[in-house]
Amino acid sequence: MSILAATTLALFLSPAAPAQDDAAKMEWVLQEGDRFDFTWTYNEQRKREPGKGESTETHDKRDVAAELVWKSEGILTLVIKKVGWSYGTQDFEVTLTYVEGKKLDPQMKMKITEKNSGFAVSKADADHMVEYMKTMTDGVFTVDTITEKGRTMVLWNGGNLREGGQLSLLARIFTHPLLPSGPVRVGQIFKDPLDVTNLTAGLTEVKEVESKVTAVGDKGLIAKGGVNIPVGKSIVANGQTQVMTGNFTYSCEWNYSPQQYLQGSKEESKFTKKVDAKGKDADFYRETFNHTISQALTIKKKAPKPGEDKKKPAEEGKPGVEKKPDEK
Fold first, then answer.
1. Is residue 42 a part of any domain in this protein?
2. How open is the CA angle 244-247-251, to the nearest 5 degrees?
3. Using one digit for the tens of pLDDT, what is the confidence trace for 150-168?
4. Which domain holds residue 42?
């Protein structure tokens, strides 16, 4: 019998505020010459400890520094400046330290020897990761704020990375859900599909996450949301009893600058489960499992380069030039 429950996280969703007149748009307003500093961190950890056999684990840590440069109306080119990437399992580790203009030179270290039965598979996985990292900067990264109204999409060679595979450097980046075209006010609600990769399918009927605008002011337009989902399942068959208990939590936040650009976003999700078993081969079914993902994006508008914010004096007689009183 399944045990399903879902509650909105009170920590992230504050009570609705009284009606007010303060309102502003969550949108990008770009002009030629705009540049932004862009930093993104991603940390994913997964570990399974079975009742019988060896533990397995994976980790994926990415630190990216880049610059966003105006390309065309609503489009910014994303230029990667620095990358620190560590990816591995209990069997291998692949690391990359990259600086713009330097050679992509990922390093691989095997933690097991060829005598291990899983060496061939793990070595192939490690080699595949090395080959991808060598081509990580191929093509063009862009930030598209105009094609789909209300979305901020990170693209690689024209494809939306959020909808692609996790292997791509910026594949799992979170910006925000679909936003309205008009102004938002404190207390306004957003609903978005629960798009996560660390919740086992079929454990819950919850399909959406609800977020709410919590601030509109000098510090930006802020929205926060999340869910907390206890999950469980019991199975009795052929004298075998399995009881699974666990929990899934998710939170998100995004913040639009009063200068009209996305200045930050965060996303965190954690799934834990424990399986107890009784009966024949009980140890084979017992396990504990933890899978966490956290990420943070920060964007900051850069000051114009010297001279860019100064217009050349208009020539006499051109529009915008006032004549002196004694001129005719």
1. yes
2. 160
3. 999 999 888 888 776 657 8
4. 2-301
In a domain, 327, yes or no: no
Contact between 61 and 43 (Cβ < 8 Å): yes
Task: Give 54-65 as a DSSP string.
Answer: --EEEEEEEEEE
pTM exceeding 0.90: no
How many structural domains are present in the chain? 1
- Sequence-distant (≥ 6) Cβ neighbours of residue 137 within 8 angstroms: 80, 98, 104
Positive or negative torsion for Cα 109, 114, 116, 119? positive
Answer whether 98's CB lies under 8 Å from 52's CB: no
User: What's the pLDDT tens digit per position in 100-143?
Assistant: 999 999 999 999 999 999 999 999 999 999 999 999 888 899 99
Neighbours of 141 (CB within 10 A): 21
| Residue 98 is assigned to a structural domain of this protein | yes
* Both tokens assigned to 192: 């978005």
